[in-house]
Amino acid sequence: MGGIRLKALLHVAAVMDEVSHMADLGIDFGAPKVDINKLRTHKEKVIGKLTGGLAAMAKMRKVTTVRGYAAFVGPNHVEVQETSGTGQEKTGSKQTIAFKKCIIAAGSQAVHLPFLPDDPRVVDSTGALELKEVPKRMLILGGGIIGLEMGTVYSTLGARLDVVEMLDGLMQGADRDLVKVWQKMNAKRFDNIMLKIKTVAARSQPEGIEVTFESAEPGGKAPEPQVYDLVLQAVGRTPNGKKIAADKAGVVVTDRGFINVDIQMRTNVPHIFAIGDIVGQPMLAHKAVYEAHVAAEVLAGELQGNAELASGAFNARVIPNVASTDPAVAAVGLTEDQAKAQGIKVKKGLFPWSALGRAIANGRDEGVTKLLFDDSPEAHGHGKILGGGMVGTHAGDMIGEIALAIEMGADAVDIGKTIHPHPTLGESIGMAAEVAHGSCTDLPPSKR
Ligand SMILES: Cc1cc2nc3c(=O)[nH]c(=O)nc-3n(C[C@H](O)[C@H](O)[C@H](O)COP(=O)(O)OP(=O)(O)OC[C@H]3O[C@@H](n4cnc5c(N)ncnc54)[C@H](O)[C@@H]3O)c2cc1C
């Protein structure tokens, strides 16, 4: 639920940013007054609604829920140390549950850097979501999506941001053309974007957390130590495979804590399945749910002797990903860099939202939609779409269309000739396909 909590806050931040942008259009609402306690309550209400809904649906389907810490005690039994209250306090009661089949879905947790002090001013994403107060200066340790989304919230609420990333760019894995636009639009949030820099030490001081940096390149220059009111460690997540006594059931866990599964989500023990963050990257909720459906169908099929259900498998071609920043960055399938690295020749269709009526009307025309089509000789000029992405407002709401196009093996004509409603941001997908095809009339003619 970390994702939903964060999205509830990101929505508030996006509205605040949008409202402040209205001043440029002649409507000035003045400076916002932030009541952090109310905001916190709102976020918890969102979660309450969702978890309440899930619990009700489980009950309707006659699912028994047992609350507590589970660990295997054999290949067909788990022991649960029960918990109660709002936290995770153990009640002292235990129960052993026998199972014919099991799905492991124990998730992951934030990586904690060993040299960071135990100090309430050093938090992971869970701690940052508590939104205790808004710091003046905040360091985001790790320039990935979770850190930057969280930074967006805190910066809109008033914090100045620094980000430190040991690699050479933020949002690694996302298309550089898209990240460039995001970075330009967000430059004002940051005092320092420290790339190819490592954090090597941190000390609790009365005035804040003093952080020391080192260059990630031999002989490179590092910034001077800095003092922060809040340090968010967002350097990745580690799977919980080693915390469930999997060995007692004979389930193999890798050194990093992952559990390997086949395309039916089956572990090395045939009646035990695993899904979600614990089975590997990408650690995303929609991937976990898809895998959960596969495992549940296979398992139910086997128990009921239903061969069709039992033959289920994970066969999605692509998994989209979204950074719900402002602007959002969304992508699915191959990026241009990945295509290059894999020696795949691609044709690019890039449509700038500066030529998109709806984006101009919204006063947010910085976006770009980019599609990549197979341009190998075997494709004979009708190559299927291999990947695509968008940077811009609501990009995350539109990426599903590109995922569907990849799943259906669409080419540029299929997408370009699909009528998209006008004026919408989604039109940019059809137009990017037309650009790749060479038939786009919404841009100046390309030079031949
Ligand atoms: C801040 C944040 C933002 C995110 N944003 C997004 C997003 O925008 N989109 C997206 O797709 N994904 C997002 N994710 C990732 C997403 O939350 C995970 O990929 C998804 O929740 C994984 O599902 P899961 O079932 O594997 O694990 P989880 O949802 O983590 O569930 C695992 C559960 O198992 C419990 N558990 C662990 N060990 C035991 C045990 N021994 N006994 C009993 N229970 C146990 C845990 O307490 C937890 O409740 C975000 C994650 C974070 C932290």
Structural write-up:
It contains twelve helices and 20 strands. It is α/β, with parallel strands linked by helices and 448 residues long. It has a five-stranded parallel β-sheet with strand order 6-13-7-8-9. It has a five-stranded antiparallel β-sheet with strand order 16-17-20-19-18, sandwiched between helices. Strands 1-2-3 form a three-stranded antiparallel β-sheet, with no helix packed on it. Strand 7, helix 4 and strand 8 form a beta-alpha-beta unit. Helix 1 packs across helix 2 and helix 1 packs across helix 4. The longest helix has 25 residues. The radius of gyration is 24 Å and the shape is globular. The termini are far apart.
